[in-house]
């Protein structure tokens, strides 16, 4: 009887162990499923948020005329939507085409067979491409008549009150005597003497005066534009061109050729040599101001200088991209746990700068590469806090998948909880079953890999079978051949 009582107690003890082990399996499975769902939802939320932020940035850039920021925003949206490099490039161009209105073709354009085309890829624009149709005579006549009427009206309505004449009615302007085609010009009772027999001379005189007026207007427009950004002094040396026989369009060309202009906008020279578009003075000043505002807002006065600002412009870094760099440098490195900075240096020994912020702000380094390296260091640090060493290759791969620091912290906490038991069981049953190590834990948690999950469940099932005295069942149903059914 005593022996029967011992057997009954042993069986009861095994039943309690089986119940506890099975409850542990259910709890582990539910915990992993919840974590995997959380990671998937987090990725979708991040993607939607990145698309929303990029869309707002694109709209603002288009409204303010910041073409560089518009391109950066379109690329950011395309990246958030995913796909290969070619798919992202095509999507970015499509977003820009939708954001900028197409030019409208007039009657002359249509008659000539012109068409509208997007030219220049992501950094391009809508352009009217000239057609090859024979010019329509009626349209040509209408355009010619309109131009003639406009010129005639401009000459007739010209204000002559500021001009002076000598006793022979020769025309003066700003103290200089007009000669050649202007000599002998008649000015009677405050208006042109149209009765003069020198019709050809009168016509030449009118045209030359109109040309000078156009040069004066070109100078005034350029002066006003540069004065608006505090650089009127750069235009003043061009005033003498008003009295020279040059095209109004040459004022802007001459301005860009001056040493003062080249020095002030020195970043444009490097941009041109790299095949980039030179920024207009207004664009240049605007992006400079945006750089400096961002640097000052974060207290990075050591980078708020002409040398760094010029390098940002030379490397076509938009204000949005610089803001991302600064946030990455300050929020995720300078203000982060020292373990992340140490892990970053250990993972990537080429980062030799003592000042990691300076490395991240270096315009010669590529932002996506820096972002992935920092993310990998954050993932590696999260694993190290759980006593796990994933290595740079795994951390980099997880970073490339978009795993965040928070997801890594939760994931490695789960792995640290299940790994000791899984490794112990792998040591016991590794000769007959597939083992479950760190790599399998990472595959199961971060990639939701079913095969890795089966390995862990097979090991636990084998252990339960051993405790239950069902070794025959364990050999038959928990082997690798039927693992997929478990």
Topology readout:
Layout lengths: L1 H63 L2 H15 L3 H15 L7 H6 L2 E5 L5 E5 L7 H20 L7 E2 L5 E3 L2 E2 L9 E2 L2 E2 L6 H29 L22 H8 L1 H6 L2 H7 L7 H17 L8 H9 L4 H16 L3 H10 L8 H6 L5 H18 L7 H9 L4 H25 L8 H10 L2 H19 L2 H7 L9
Antiparallel strand pairs: 1-2, 3-4, 4-5, 6-7
Structural commentary:
The chain is mainly α and 486 residues long. It folds into four domains: 79 residues; 45 residues, no CATH class; 87 residues, no CATH class; 136 residues, no CATH class. Helix content is 65%, strand content 4%. The chain contains 20 helices and seven strands. The strands form three sheets. It has a three-stranded antiparallel beta sheet with strand order 3-4-5, with no helix packed on it. Strands 1-2 form a two-stranded antiparallel ribbon. Helix 10 crosses helix 11 and helix 15 crosses helix 16. It is elongated. The C terminus is likely disordered.
Instruction: Count up the helices.
Output: 20
Major sheet attributes: 3 strands, antiparallel
- Spans with pLDDT under 50 lasting ≥5 residues? 166-194, 196-202, 471-486
Mean pLDDT: 76
Q: Tell me the strand percentage band.
A: under 5%
Strand segment count: 7
Distance between the termini: 40 Å
Q: What is the SS-derived class?
A: mainly alpha
Shape: elongated
* Whole-number total of structural domains: 4
Radius of gyration: 38 Å
Q: Could you give the order of strands across the largest sheet? A: 3-4-5
- Return the string of H and E elements: HHHHEEHEEEEEHHHHHHHHHHHHHHH
Percent of residues in helices comes to 55-70%
Task: Describe the structure in brief.
By secondary structure, the chain is mainly alpha-helical. Helices cover 65% and strands 4% of the residues.
